[in-house]
Amino acid sequence: MSRRRRIGVMGGTFDPIHHGHLVAASEVQAQFGLEQVVFVPTGQPWQKSHEVVSPAEDRYLMTVIATASNPRFLVSRVDIDRGGPTYTVDTLSDLREQYPDTDLYFITGADALEQIVSWHRVVELFDMAHFIGVTRPGYSLDGAHLPKGAVSLVEIPAMAISSTGCRDRVRAGLPVWYLVPDGIVQYITKRGLYREGSDSPAVEW
Ligand code: ATP
Ligand code: MG
């Protein structure tokens, strides 16, 4: 009997995508024998509505650029094209329609996992996908009050990188080389992202 397909789902704001995201996806792909990992950039993130988030098309293109060389990585526009705030329950419903007879593995960092109980319709989520919590420097997985057996915890090579840190560095004129893929350094420069008072990204996509 053939095994059901296994597809990973890596949701994020990806503003910008960095090597922490890529290592997490790659490690879970290998450990769980996933056919593919789908990166899903959020629409307007509801938990970050107080912050300024780069245009969805910039975040989408950066995610495409960063994942293009890996045949097991692909990018989905479901959350961007749906419009409105992104809820993981909608992401997983859409992907389940797109990938029938498939087990979905939702990959999330330790910080996001701590907040998981605050998520919209959390009980349904655990029925829709396996949840994989990955380690992240600065965050502990112990404190998260998660239903027993609902989440698999995976240790990944430590990457103390965050998008916030990358944005702060660009704003301060510091390099982000080697924190993000080369193409992302170039894309950030080309679009003038994260620089206060720059003309870009005033461009509306
Ligand atoms: P920000 O600082 O803007 O919140 P971020 O670096 O946390 O950005 P997100 O797009 O918010 O990146 O995260 C997407 C997912 O990737 C989340 O599940 C997050 O926990 C996980 N993640 C992000 N960075 C790392 C990292 N360095 N190691 C492990 N997981 C990570
Ligand atoms: Mg984050």
From TrEMBL:
Record carries keyword Nucleotidyltransferase: yes
Segments forming domain Cytidyltransferase-like: 9-169
Keyword set, alphabetical order: ATP-binding, NAD, Nucleotide-binding, Nucleotidyltransferase, Pyridine nucleotide biosynthesis, Transferase
Superkingdom field: Bacteria
Catalyzed chemical reaction(s): nicotinate beta-D-ribonucleotide + ATP + H(+) = deamido-NAD(+) + diphosphate
Entry annotated with the keyword Lipid metabolism: no
E.C. numbers: 2.7.7.18
Pfam families: CTP_transf_like
Pathway(s) the chain acts in: Cofactor biosynthesis; NAD(+) biosynthesis; deamido-NAD(+) from nicotinate D-ribonucleotide: step 1/1
Gene Ontology MF annotations: nicotinate-nucleotide adenylyltransferase activity
Record function comment: Catalyzes the reversible adenylation of nicotinate mononucleotide (NaMN) to nicotinic acid adenine dinucleotide (NaAD).
UniProt record similarity statement: Belongs to the NadD family.
PANTHER family given in the database record: NICOTINATE-NUCLEOTIDE ADENYLYLTRANSFERASE-RELATED (PTHR39321), PHOSPHOPANTETHEINE ADENYLYLTRANSFERASE (PTHR39321:SF3)
Protein name: Probable nicotinate-nucleotide adenylyltransferase
